[in-house]
């Protein structure tokens, strides 16, 4: 059930909201939370009800193990708990990748596993690993199991983030005033949700046509087509994922729950470090707090810092997908951060516009490895982009219809306020009410004509 699907917008969401606030208004706060938990599990089981078994067992294990860790505060318990989570993640996400590479290297004949990747497994696994670590560090309170389950499964963040910390979410659920309908939060939530929906179905889904055509056969692209393909994906990915995050934040506000910021105009970043402070912020913070800092961060000299950065971002690449292109994407970003760290020591001032241009150019190049279905497809596209072996193609990408959304999207990225800024300054006045109504009407038109919708980050 996609956030942009009619069944979610016109059935699941209104029913969930109405029942939740009706129960709360009748002083049935515990039942309202229980209802929200049941609704979230229904939402998760919509694609495949068998996934409920996995997430249910995962929550039982991690909550129980968290209590053991809190009671005994033994490092071996933490290590065991984290290892079990990683083994489950490895089985579902990386086992076939490992078997394929083993068979290739050692001429093995092991059959691949018949494994279907459960939705959101990376997100709810990381969320619960952080909970175990915090349990060991004495940062976890005395939570009920039902509240813990609601923290993990709350449907706005369950499938693709933002990655939330228990200290950010669980106290909000336990605050009884948040169970009451808040017209201010509701109006702002509707505003942010519909802006995110517009980013997804108007811009990202339109650009997906170019991306799909371009990556279908990268060997046949001309130089211009290759650049259009790569730029279209960079813009599509941003609007797709940030649009999802905006919708999640808006949905949270409908229930009086504040989610952390996840995107902050990343393509306006002046350097690669700035980019990672703006792109998928909750993942960046997780990698920093639970991988980079425990490895030693920047406390042990330049070589150790460079090593820790490379390990962190290579693991970040692996987290996104089981493939060498993802690993290389992570390597490229780790290397860029190492180089940037050394460059800043030279204290060479460059204009902001140049920093933005260079950073976006580099990020756009690295996205090729992130999106390409194979190493060959990635290198073919890059060759075409730089005029090496580019061909005269019959692939139609650069028509007026397809190129216009790219420039419109680019202008929005570079020159207008982002959704966070618009949401922060939101007021329920006439101008914004008219804007909201217009956005809703346009969204309805695109919803009516939309086909084959998907969120890119569901695959991660």
UniProtKB/TrEMBL annotation:
Q: From the record, give the transmembrane residue ranges.
A: 6-23, 30-47, 53-70, 77-95, 115-133, 145-164, 184-203, 309-332, 353-370, 432-450
Where is this gene product found?
Answer: Cell membrane
Per UniProt, which keywords does this protein have? Answer: Acyltransferase, Cell membrane, Membrane, Transferase, Transmembrane, Transmembrane helix
Q: Which InterPro entries match?
A: Ac/AlaTfrase_AlgI/DltB, AlgI, MB_O-acyltransferase, MBOAT_fam
Keyword field contains Acyltransferase: yes
Q: How does the record classify its membrane topology?
A: Multi-pass membrane protein
- Which Pfam families is this protein grouped with? MBOAT
Say where the protein is mainly found: membrane
Lipoprotein among keywords: no
Q: What family is reported?
A: Belongs to the membrane-bound acyltransferase family.
Q: What protein name does the entry list?
A: MBOAT family protein
């Amino acid at each position: 059930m996609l956030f942009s699907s009619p069944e979610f917008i016109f059935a699941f969401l209104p029913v969930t909201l109405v029942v939740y606030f009706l129960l709360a208004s009748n002083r049935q706060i515990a039942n309202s939370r229980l209802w929200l938990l049941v609704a979230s599990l229904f939402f998760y089981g919509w694609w495949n009800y068998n996934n409920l078994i996995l997430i249910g067992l995962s929550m039982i294990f991690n909550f129980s193990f968290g209590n053991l860790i809190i009671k005994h505060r033994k490092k071996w318990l933490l290590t065991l708990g984290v290892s079990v989570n990683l083994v489950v993640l490895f089985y579902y996400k990386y086992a076939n990748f490992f078997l394929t590479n083993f068979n290739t290297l050692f001429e093995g004949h092991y059959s691949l596993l018949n494994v279907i990747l459960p939705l959101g497994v990376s997100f709810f696994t990381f969320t619960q690993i952080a909970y175990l670590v915090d349990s060991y560090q004495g940062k976890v309170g005395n939570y009920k199991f039902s509240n813990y389950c609601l923290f993990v499964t709350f449907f706005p963040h369950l499938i693709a983030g933002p990655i939330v910390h228990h200290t950010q979410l669980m106290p909000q659920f336990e605050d009884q005033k948040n169970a009451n309908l808040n017209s201010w939060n509701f109006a702002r939530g509707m505003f942010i949700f519909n802006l995110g929906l517009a980013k997804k179905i108007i811009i990202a889904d339109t650009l997906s046509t170019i991306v799909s055509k371009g990556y279908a056969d990268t060997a046949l692209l001309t130089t211009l087509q290759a650049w259009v393909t790569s730029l279209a994906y960079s813009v599509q990915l941003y609007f797709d994922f940030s649009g999802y995050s905006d919708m999640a934040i808006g949905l949270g506000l409908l229930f009086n729950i504040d989610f952390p910021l996840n995107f902050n105009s990343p393509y306006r970043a002046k350097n690669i470090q700035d980019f990672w402070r703006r792109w998928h912020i909750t993942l960046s913070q997780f990698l920093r707090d639970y991988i980079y800092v425990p490895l030693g961060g920047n406390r042990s000299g330049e070589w150790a810092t460079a090593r820790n950065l490379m390990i962190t971002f290579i693991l970040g690449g692996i987290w996104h997908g089981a493939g060498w292109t993802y690993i290389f994407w992570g390597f490229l970003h780790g290397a860029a951060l190492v180089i940037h760290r050394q460059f800043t020591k030279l204290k060479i001032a460059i204009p902001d516009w140049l920093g933005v241009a260079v950073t976006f150019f580099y990020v756009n190049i690295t996205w090729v490895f992130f999106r390409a279905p194979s190493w060959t497809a990635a290198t073919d596209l890059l060759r075409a982009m730089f005029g090496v072996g580019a061909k005269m193609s019959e692939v139609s990408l650069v028509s007026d219809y397809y190129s216009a959304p790219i420039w419109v999207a680019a202008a929005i990225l570079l020159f207008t306020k982002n959704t966070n800024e618009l949401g922060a300054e939101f007021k329920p006045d006439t101008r914004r009410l008219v804007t909201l109504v217009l956005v809703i009407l346009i969204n309805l038109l695109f919803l009516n004509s939309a086909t084959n919708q998907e969120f890119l980050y569901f695959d991660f």
